[in-house]
UniProtKB/TrEMBL annotation, chain A:
Coiled coil: none annotated. Its main location: membrane. Belongs to the binding-protein-dependent transport system permease family. Keywords: Cell membrane, Membrane, Transmembrane, Transmembrane helix, Transport. This is ABC transporter permease subunit. The chain crosses the membrane at residues 12-33, 74-97, 109-129, 141-162, 183-208, 261-280. GO terms for biological process: transmembrane transport. InterPro entries: MetI-like (IPR000515), MetI-like_sf (IPR035906). It comes from Paenibacillus sacheonensis.
From TrEMBL, chain B:
This is Extracellular solute-binding protein. Residues 1-24 form the signal peptide. The keyword Signal applies. It comes from the Bacteria. It comes from Paenibacillus sacheonensis. It holds the Pfam family DUF3502. Gene3D superfamilies: Periplasmic binding protein-like II. Residues 442-510 form the DUF3502 domain.
Length: 295, 512
């Protein structure tokens, strides 16, 4: 039982575990891609196959035949994600920076307020009333952006990163005559790049994947983001197939997109974020470990 | 190092807590709002004077279930032209997706948002829940005053069905009310194997057809079943009326003493399960039926040869043929038509407690019952833009028109509407005739208040959702699993629920 033989064992186990885990993550996605490229009748006859029996782009053709809704969905999703990520990142970082400064007297109590909202929330209904009745921003792009603009979790994450920047650095900048704004933009931000990239990715994911806000607040069909379009289709089919059986009503489900088309939408919704990820990855690994070891 | 770990743990914990608190917010909402009690129609009389003479202009908002339509604006505009002139009102139509409607309406009601009309039913935006919460106003005084056409159209039985504690809280839409159990059989397949459809009297009679299909048509599914099971589709055929959907508790349709039984303990259920087990083992249903929730793929491919009809009704064959990808079907009735509370309340419109102009909302509903033009704009859109006329009473949808809700049963008096292309002219009259001649269930008009046995019902639905998919599809051996299921129901408090149902029914019977 010496250490040398034990280590590869452990490594091998880790490797195997992550391989299996990755496979579990990848296979469902491959299924989605495969189904979206299959013939509808193949699915009905042979079930789901990892490699389609006959490859066809029929589902995508079908979607692109009336691309208006799809394009507007993309437009909304991209706009919300870009504006939301930039705005949210800026505000989150500013707040986190203030909280991380040791010479800021209110830092602790302000931190507590931020933290407090993680533990307790007003609940769904008061929140709904606030947005609908008092802010009156429902049915606009703003309602898709504003509610996620400050996530306490991101603020605390960011604060953790920024706390590691030595205060001496800020002091010396001050001595050299830099103002607060200049310190923030020209010294803090460049130093915090890995953290910014990490948090930006988190934020972008949240905006891109969100359908909840749209479900609650959007009526205008031109402001529907892509994810909500997808969610709606899936949810409707499920609801109708369970509730129609016993009810005295007739709803035409044949008008709903069929299986291949649904999967094609899923691929199109997942696509862009897949391409974004590699660009962030470089920073991502670094960002997660920043602050783990104190110098 | 240690400090950091602590920090992350705290943060992770915090996220967890945050999620639970959000979820708790959703869950507890129902209870909080229950003490609202029944709405009083107090504000109904205050504005009664406006009923005649000049009306102030008002805006009405209507929430209903359905896929939002692209060109809703021009439909609203066309409707408003008529409404302005007749009742000086404008309508704002808010269609909410099928799957989201319940949640959305819960929020709308809980937040006290102003709206005037809402679709309500037994299966979406639950009627009784809304009435218990006081979301709708009682319409007993408003209807005779402002809705003469509705009163003329809806038979008394209909009002009995929608009454809760003696008051009317919603206007039932006039569509097919009678409930007739039955199955649809693919015509060509039956002909191919020389199966005489007319010989089917009960659903087990189709077995020879299923056997030939299984033996010769590997691409087809002989009998469609899924995790919802099919027992509910045969309730009337077995001679039952269920009290509260899938919650245990039924009453025999012939039983005037109104004795409540647990359907899962009846011999009918036992026989049904034996058949299902047999069919499952012979391969007449899909092997994965117990976990299957979406059969629309199979249907579109025209695979199932025999499917249960939710309700056998005039025009139903055409609908099912459409659903099965154009495969011609023949409907077989397995029961007499019966008027059930559940079949009547499956589509209604309620007037919100938050409505500023309930009397105008009722007048608007009344117009939908009397004004064919208005109804058809709402149901089918604008001629030339959303549909073309095939003949005087039949319309054909323009696919790119941007308006085709295809839910005319949701908008008042369906029999006011045009037929859609493919529907046989005359089915409205036939439907009315069935409604008028159908026998009434002895339970018609009774509504169960689940509040006293809420906990038991929650436990029961956990048990049923665990066992019903397995038993009802034949995936497990009923000889072994049924006693286990019944025992679990007993532990979950089925007897208390049945006793409560019996108590309420007895009280209801005595008050009649």
């Amino acid at each position: 039982m010496n250490a040398a033989s034990k280590l590869p064992w452990g490594k091998w186990l880790t490797l195997a575990w992550f391989t299996v885990f990755s496979i579990f993550c990848i296979i469902p996605f491959l299924y989605i891609v495969s189904i979206s490229l299959s013939n509808e009748s193949d699915i009905a006859n042979y079930g789901y196959k990892l490699i389609p029996k006959h490859i066809t782009t029929h589902a995508y053709d079908f979607l692109l035949q009336s691309p208006k809704q799809l394009l507007s969905g993309y437009g909304v999703s991209i706009t919300v994600t870009v504006i939301g990520t930039v705005a949210s990142l800026l505000i989150t970082t500013k707040l986190a920076y203030a909280l991380s400064r040791k010479d800021f007297g209110g830092a602790n109590s302000l931190s507590f307020i931020v933290f407090f909202t993680m533990l307790f929330s007003g609940g769904l209904v008061p929140w709904y009333i606030l947005i609908k009745r008092y802010l009156q921003i429902d049915d606009s792009l703003l309602v898709l952006i504003l509610p996620y603009i400050i996530m306490p979790w991101h603020v605390l994450l960011m604060k953790g990163f920024l706390s590691d920047i030595p205060p001496a650095l800020i002091e010396s900048a001050k001595i050299d005559g830099a103002g607060e704004w200049r310190i923030f933009y020209q010294i803090i931000l460049p130093l915090a790049k890995p953290a910014l990239a990490t948090v930006a990715l988190f934020i972008a994911f949240i905006y891109w994947n969100d359908w909840w806000l749209a479900m609650l607040f959007i009526d205008n069909q031109n402001l529907i983001p892509l994810q909500y379009m997808l969610y709606r289709i899936m949810n409707n089919i499920q609801f109708l197939s369970t509730s129609m059986q016993s009810s005295n009503i007739s709803i035409d489900i044949t008008a709903m997109p069929n299986e291949t088309a649904r999967m094609a939408i899923a691929v199109m919704a997942a696509g862009p974020i897949l391409f974004v990820f590699p660009f962030f990855q470089k920073y991502f690994v670094k960002g997660l470990t920043v602050g783990a070891v104190k110098g | 190092m240690q400090k950091k770990t602590l920090k992350t743990t705290t943060a992770a914990l915090a996220v967890g807590l945050l999620m639970t608190s959000v979820l708790a917010g959703c869950g507890s909402k129902n209870e909080n709002d229950n003490n609202g009690g029944n709405a009083s129609p107090s504000n109904a009389n205050g504005t009664a004077a406006a009923g005649e003479g000049k009306l102030d202009p008002v805006e009405l908002t209507w929430y209903f279930d359905g896929t939002p339509q692209a060109d809703i604006a021009s439909v609203e505009e066309a409707m408003n032209k008529i409404l302005k002139e007749k009742i000086n009102a404008t309508i704002h139509l808010k269609a909410i997706d099928w799957g989201n409607y319940d949640q959305k309406m819960q929020l709308v009601n809980a937040s006290g948002e102003r709206y005037d009309l809402a679709f309500t039913s037994s299966w979406a935006n639950n009627y009784y829940t809304n009435v218990n919460k006081g979301a709708f106003i009682a319409l007993d005084d408003l209807l005779p005053k402002y809705a003469p056409n509705i009163m003329k159209t809806i038979p008394d039985l209909g009002w009995n069905a929608v009454k809760v504690k003696g008051s009317i809280y919603a206007v039932p839409n006039y569509q097919i009310w009678a409930s007739t159990n039955g199955i649809a059989i693919q015509k060509d397949v039956a002909a191919k194997y020389g199966f005489d459809i007319a010989s089917v009297k009960k659903f087990t009679d189709i077995e020879p057809l299923l056997a030939s299909v299984k033996a010769n048509e590997p691409g087809l599914v002989p009998f469609e079943n899924d995790k919802g099971g099919r027992f509910g589709s045969f309730n009337v055929a077995y001679g039952f009326d269920s009290i509260a959907g899938s919650i245990p508790g039924i009453v025999g349709l012939q039983d005037t003493s109104l004795k409540v039984l647990n359907q899962f303990e009846t011999t009918a259920y036992k026989e049904y399960l034996a058949t299902m087990r047999d069919w499952f083992q012979k391969g007449y249903v899909r092997k994965d039926a117990a976990t299957l929730s979406d059969t629309s793929g199979d249907r579109k491919a025209g695979k199932p040869v025999v499917v249960t009809e939710g309700n056998v009704k005039p025009g139903g064959e055409v609908e099912m043929t459409g659903a099965l990808g154009g495969k011609q079907v023949v409907d077989v009735k397995l029961s007499e038509p019966y008027l059930l509370t559940s079949s009547i309340i499956s589509t209604m419109t309620g007037v919100s407690k938050t409505s500023k102009n309930p009397e105008r909302a009722v007048m608007f509903l009344d117009l939908l019952f009397s004004d064919k033009e208005l109804f058809n704009i709402l149901a089918h859109g604008i001629e030339g833009k959303h549909y073309t006329k095939v003949d005087e009473n039949t319309v054909d949808v323009i696919k790119e028109g941007g308006y085709d809700p295809n839910t005319d049963w949701e908008f008042g008096n369906q029999f006011n509407g045009f037929y859609r292309k493919g529907q046989e002219p005359g089915i409205w009259d036939e439907t009315i005739k069935i409604n008028e001649t159908a026998k009434a269930s002895p339970l018609l008009g009774f509504s169960f208040d689940p509040t006293p046995v809420k906990t038991e019902i929650a436990q029961l639905s956990t048990v049923t959702s665990q066992y019903v998919p397995l038993l009802d599809t034949g995936a497990v051996d009923p000889d072994k699993m049924l006693p286990e299921f019944v025992a679990k129901l007993k532990t979950a408090g089925v007897d208390r629920v049945i006793a409560e149902e019996q108590k309420q029914i007895d009280a209801w019977k005595a008050s009649k």
